[in-house]
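Q: I have two molecules that I believe assemble together. Could you output C-alpha cells for the complex as a whole instead of separate predictions?
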Amino acid sequence: MSQPLDRTCKIEPMGKVDTAAGEFWTHPFAMPKQGDNLSAYESNKLFLNVDGSRFLDASFASLADIDSDSRSVMVGDFDGDSAPDLLVGSVGGGPLRLFLNRFPREHHRVVISLRGTKSNRSAIGARATVEISGRTIVRDLFSANGFMGQSPARLNVGVEGAQVIDKLTIRWPTGERQVFHDLPVDCEIAIVEGTDEFRLINSKKTE
Amino acid sequence: MKQYWVPVLIVLIVATAVGWWNWGRTSAPSSDPIPEFTGLDETKQKEIWDAEHATFEIETHVGRKLVAALQSRKTDQLARFFRPGFEGNIPGRSHPTTIDKSSITETVNRAESADVANVDADGLIQFLITGTVRINKIQRGRFRVLKIARDEGEGNEDEWRLSVLLTVGGINSEGRPITYDSHGSIRCRFTDDEDIVAGRIVESWEIDSETTRLGRDPLMEEVTAQFGLDQLPIIDNWNCDVDQVRQYRFQTAVEDFGGDGVPDIAVATADDQQLLLQWNSVSGKYDDITKSAGLPRRFETNNKAYLACWFDFDNDGDADLLLGETLYRNVDGKKLEAVADNGGLTFDYNPMGCVVADYDADGLLDLYVLYQRPRNETRDAPPTWVSDDASGAFNQLWRNRGDGTFVEKSREAKATGGSRHSFAATWLHANDDHFPDLYIANDFSRNSLLINRGDGTFRDVAEESGVGDFATSMGVATGDIDGDGTPEIYVANMYSKMGRRIIAHVSEADYPEGVYQQILGSCAGNRLYSNAGDRGGYRDLSEQLGVNAVGWAYAPAFIDFDGDGRLDLYATTGFLSFNRRKPDG
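A: Yes, here they are, computed for all two components at once.
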C-alpha cells in the first residue's frame, strides 16, 4: 500500500494490519502485476440531466451500470428507432456490449442529416440551433471520441414535447448559415448545404 | 464504486503508478524538477495510518453488520452499535423534495427543514428501518466513511468524528429497482480495535439527508448476444493470464460503412487484430466481414498503433477508415482499399486515439492524433510526479490536402499540445466562431484548451480559462448541458473516497511546492467545466451537479437518452478487476 509520502509513494505499515478481515498493505505499482484488484468492479454511471443545473444518478435502474473495467462508449442508433443506444467497450467481462435505449417514449426527436458541399461533406463542425416553443437547443456535429472509441457524427436532437421546430439554423463548417422554419419532428431531415430544400427520411428498424 | 477495503491512499498516486507500469523499462528520460522529499512528517504519517485503519475497522466490523441487520430488519442487532446516552438527529419526512424523471422518482428529505427531530437510539433505528422498508429485497448495501478525524477523548478512549454514507439497494414489492442513501455525521468513541469489533461505539448520529430513488422499468436493455456481439475474438482480461492483462486492449469506431443506415463497427486491438463487423438485416446479427471487405485479420505495425477512426477524407459520401495505422478508402460500401502510400500518414509510437475535424475550414477533414510517450528510450525512474510536461510526446495534426494526401502541421499550427501524456481529445466550439477548437485530456500534467485562431494556428488558453487543472485525465466529452448555447467540458479523472479522506489530513505545507495541488488533482473526480458566459472563464460544477464521483474514470459521453432536449451523461469507470473475492485497492 502506498501514500503520498515520498516520490516512490512507499511507506511501511505503522500498526497492526487486520488481514483476518481482508486488510492488506502493498505497493500499488505491484498490484496489477500480482493480480490484485485496483479500483476494481466499479460500475459505469448513467446520469440524467434534470434541468441543466443537476443530474440524477439513474445508474441503478439502467441495466447499463456494468462493472467490467470499461474504457470506451460509442453512441448510435443501433435498432433504427431514433433513440440513441450505447456500445460499451471494456477490457473485462466482454469486450463490446450493446445496450438499447428503453427509456419511456415521452418526447419527440429529430435527426438532422447534413451534407456539406463547400464544407466537408460530413458537415463535421456544423452547429444546429433548434428553436422550439421559446426554447433554444444548440448541438454541434462531431464524431465524439471520449477515449479509444469513436461515435458516428449525428445530430440527434430531443425536442421534448414540441411537435414542430419553429426555426432551425445551420451554421456550416465554412461559417455560412442557413435558416429553416416550421419543420416536422419524429423524422430525419436531410439538408444539403446551399439549397433551401430539405428531404424527410423515415428511420429503419433493425429489431 | 465497490469494495475499497484498503485503508490507504492508492489513488492519490495511481497516475504515477500506472504510468510507471505502462512505461516498463522503455521510457524517455526527463529532468526531475522536484527537490528530494523524504516523506511526510512521522506524526502526520501516524495520524493518516490511524485514521485509515480505524476507517477500515469501522467499515468492516460496524458497517457490514449494520447493513446486514438492516437487511434482516433486526432492531436488536442494530441497537448493539449505539452507546448508552446516544443522541440522534433525523430529518422530517413531511416536506420531501421530489423529482420525477424518465420513470424514476427521487424523494429527498433534508435536515434543513424545520421538522428535524432529536431521537434516541430506538428512534434512529426506526428511522432507518422505515426509510428502507420499501426495499422489499435488499440486494446490496454499504456503510462508507467519507471523512474521519480524531478528537481528544476522555481517559483511554479516543473520540472520532465521521462523515458517513449509508447506501442500500434492491427491489421493491413489485420487483422495481430501488435505492436508499443516507448522508450524515457520526461521533464514535473507542479505545482499540476490539472495541470496534464489539460494536457499541456510536454515541451520536446526525442524518443530514435521506434519498430514495425508485425506478419503474429498466432504462436500457442489453442485446449483446442477440446482436451477435458476444463471441468476438478479442482477448478479455477476465479470461487470460495475469501477465497478459492490459490496461487498454482495443480501439473501436462506429459508423455506417455499408450505407444501410445501421452503424457498423471497426476494431483494432493491441494484439494486432482487426475486425470489421457489419449489421446483417437478414440474420439480425452483426457479421464479421473483415476478410470479405479485403482486410487481413492481423495488421502490421511497428508503432504499437491500433487506431480506429471513420472519416470521409475524400468527400465522396462514404465513410473511409483509419484502422491500425493504415488508411483505407471505402469502395461502394463493400470493400476497403488501402490508400497509396497511406496518404502520407505516418504515426509515432503507440497513439492513444485520434479525432477528426476540418480545422482550417477548407472543406476537408483533418486528423488529430494523440500520444502519451515517446518510443524506445530507456530510463529506470518513473515519470516525474509533479506536473510532467516534459516526458510525454507531441501530438500530430494531419492537414488534409484534398489530393489523397496529408501533411503534418502540429508545430506550425502550435497544436502539439506539448510533451504531455495525451489520452483523449474532443473538438468543440468553445467560442462563437465556426473554427473548431480542441480540448486535450492529459495524464500526469494539466490539460489543454487550444483555441483555433482561424489562421491555421491555435493558442492554448487552458490556464487563463480555468480548464487546465492537473487531474490525471483519461477521457473527455463536450456538450451544452445547461442550454445556454455554449458547450460544457466534462473531463474523466480519478476519484476515490479513500483519497478524499486522506487528503483531509494533509495540506500544502506538508509537501514541496506544487505537490499538494497535484495530489489533490489526482483524487479530484470527474470535472464538469461550465462556461459562465463570459467567454473564457470556466467553473467546475461537477460536485454541485452530482457528476463528480465516478471512480477511476475513462470515456464519458453526452447523450439525450430521453429526448427532453437536455444532454444526459454516461461515464465509464474501473481500472483492473481480477477477483471479486479479493480486497480492492
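A: One point stands out. Chain A has one helix and 14 strands.
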